[in-house]
Design goal:
The complex is a heterodimer of chains A (about 375) and B (about 220). Chain A is α/β, with parallel strands linked by helices. Chain A has helices at about 25-30, 40-55, 120-130, 150-160, 180-185, 205-210, 215-230, 245-260, 275-280, 280-285, 290-305; strands at about 1-5, 5-10, 15-20, 35-40, 60-65, 70-75, 80-85, 95, 135-140, 165-170, 195-200, 235-240, 265-270, 310, 335, 355. Chain B is globular, with a radius of gyration of 18 Å. The interface of A and B includes residues 26, 54, 57 and 162 of A.
Chain lengths: ~375, ~220
């Protein structure tokens, strides 16, 4: 999530605001929302203060480079900073639902915490209300969003009401969908277009349970997948390419083809070198280039079962050329970077690039620029 | 096909005419022209006449203006209590529209009623005088964004006046309270603005005035 240094009017509420320019305040102002007026001059600042004194309690001025009109921001307490929750110009939009989780994955990029963070539900709903333009896709992430139960449903309802054209993607391990109460709380009568992004790390319980570091997780996740299918929900399986998973990847692909043929697609994802992945580096750091044959074999298996698949977070130079067309630019805008070597690369435009923290962690493979001549097959 | 589009757009443009008499002199043909030319650059004004529900509205206190659109009168009289002189804006009351066509059936109750209000009471008072004013709301519903659908007519009026007041103040023409009432200061500022723009000095929120101010009508 972006953090931006700002200068902010005193005594603002520590909750969600929409950034608006001084010129457009009159056309966007609404009593049920809160606005930060983006000012560029002392004149605008005084004008905003005058408007506030005239009775507009829900506006305050803000000044900061890097803020854009339409940004949905939350001020950080005791700091001259805001968090940008949503930005219209981004390619990927997501809302953070909770930091709690019932799994403890080896390569978790967002290590879970125990504290009650239920206020995040209200913040997410507020952000949805403040959002000016409906994004085509909005992701809900965590933590494990199913832990919120009805709270998750409230967020989904808010999105359906405020942005009926938006498709929602929910990142979940699906384990709680083996619980009937959770299923009815969240899925009963859910008609909006939603896709559930569920990780699966093995074709048998001991591999999956080892990767997510939780006994019984495999059975619960499979139960959750079957429940989602029974409710007619779309599923994307997500497989993070770390060593224990890569070792069984062809078998896992065949398992999916035989037992979970209803999934919409399988995402094969490079590991994000942050969080627990740094602590479990010997298991998580792989050179994708060395696993090229495994990747090709698994992709072939998925193709044979007619299951669409794609690669995420994998730079093109780390993949066999036969898989380039399956690779996507998947890394969220705010944490996406390219290495110095990428400058001379002929396919940089269509490459996912790297996570910003690759320098503190590792690269998914040695990065090399692709020459124009190599791109002609 | 284009004939069908022309017909349906004529029909849609005519809907407000069926609903209230106050729209009787709205130029309905303009909408049709822009639709029959699918490749044309959409040069539409910010607000059509039919978007602006309050073009003839002069002030809250004068009952003379209400006679122009009699169907709204019962609603407006109820709003006189809302237009208090308190400078700060009060939390809006989200009354679930009784014949809500666009509202999702499973929408959260928290978003339809403001915290301090009991929903039952609101709905009662709404339904008791909703027979006439409820109608234009339901007809206009398909074209309005869902977030605005919950506003009553008087709340829309307040919102529109407040937006006009914000714009006038940022232009330096108005320095009074931004309270959603079309008071003397707002009207004289409007007249001054209209004079600057060479418009008839009516002091009312006519559609050309709103367009010149760049203020979208609340509808």
């Amino acid at each position: 999530m972006r953090r931006i240094k700002v200068r902010l009017q005193a005594q603002v509420e520590m909750c969600v605001h929409r950034v608006v320019t001084y010129e457009n305040l009159a056309s966007e102002w609404s009593p049920d929302l809160r606005f930060f007026v983006l000012v560029f001059s002392a004149e605008n600042q005084a004008g905003t203060e005058a408007l506030r004194q005239s009775g507009l309690a829900n506006i305050a001025w803000i000044e900061g480079k890097g803020l854009q009109e339409g940004d949905i921001v939350v001020p950080v307490r005791d700091k001259q900073e805001v968090l940008v929750l949503l930005r219209e110009a981004d390619a990927h939009h997501s809302l953070f639902m909770t930091n709690r989780c019932n799994s403890y994955c080896l390569m978790c990029s967002q290590p879970p915490t125990l504290g009650d963070d239920g206020w995040l539900v209200g913040e997410a709903i507020d952000a949805v209300r403040h959002l000016r333009k409906s994004p085509p896709v909005l992701g809900l992430t965590g933590g494990e969003p199913l832990l919120l139960g009805t709270g998750l449903r409230q967020v989904l309802n808010a999105i359906e009401q405020e942005h009926p054209t938006t498709h929602v993607e929910i990142l979940t391990n699906g384990r709680l969908f083996s619980n009937r109460q959770v299923v009815s709380d969240i899925l009963d009568g859910l008609t909006m277009p939603a896709r559930w992004l569920v990780p699966l790390y093995g074709h048998c319980n001991f591999v999956h349970d080892f990767v997510v570091q939780t006994q019984g997780a495999f059975d619960e996740t499979i139960g959750g997948l079957l429940t989602l299918q029974a409710h007619g929900q779309q599923i994307q399986l997500r497989i993070v390419l770390i060593e224990p998973v890569l070792r069984v990847l062809p078998e896992l692909a065949a398992f999916i083809g035989r037992n979970l043929p209803f999934v919409r697609e399988v995402a094969l994802m490079g590991c994000e070198p942050i969080g627990f992945a740094l602590a479990n580096r010997e298991l998580c750091e792989v050179n994708l280039h060395e696993w090229g044959e495994t990747l090709e074999r698994s992709a072939r298996t998925l193709r044979r079962f007619s299951i669409p698949y794609l690669f995420m977070n994998a730079p093109l130079c780390a993949l066999p050329q036969s898989l380039w067309s399956d690779a996507h630019r998947s890394i969220s805008d705010w944490k996406n970077e390219y290495a110095a070597e990428c400058d001379g690369c002929a396919v940089k435009e269509s490459c996912s690039g790297l996570f910003s923290w690759y320098e503190r962690g590792w690269k998914p493979a040695p990065i090399r620029p692709i020459k124009q001549a190599e791109t002609i097959v | 096909m284009s004939k069908f589009i022309r017909n349906i757009s004529l029909f849609i443009a005519g809907l407000p005419l069926l609903a209230t008499k106050s729209y009787a002199n709205a130029p309905s043909t303009a909408t049709v022209d822009s639709l029959s030319e699918p490749d044309a650059v959409p040069l539409r004004p910010l607000n059509w006449e039919s978007d602006n529900l309050f073009a003839g509205h002069r002030s809250h206190s004068s009952h003379r203006s209400h006679s122009s659109h009699s169907s709204h009168s019962s609603h407006y009289s109820g709003s006189s209590g809302v237009s208090s002189s308190a400078p700060s804006y009060r939390a809006p009351v989200y009354v679930a529209p009784t014949p809500a066509p666009t509202q999702a059936p499973n929408s959260t109750p928290a978003q339809q009623t403001s915290p301090g209000q009991t929903p039952g009471v609101n709905r009662l008072s709404e339904s008791s005088n909703a027979t006439a004013p409820g109608k234009p709301q339901t007809l206009a519903a398909p074209t309005t964004p869902p977030s605005r659908a919950g506003l009553t007519s008087s709340e829309k009026l307040r919102l529109q006046i407040m937006r006009v007041q914000i714009k006038l103040q940022s232009l330096g023409l108005y320095s009074g309270p931004i309270d959603g009432t079309l008071n003397e200061g707002t009207r004289s500022a409007l007249k001054y603005f209209q004079d600057l723009k060479g418009m008839p000095k009516s002091g009312a929120m006519t559609t050309p005035t709103l367009n010149a101010l760049g203020v979208p009508a609340a509808n």
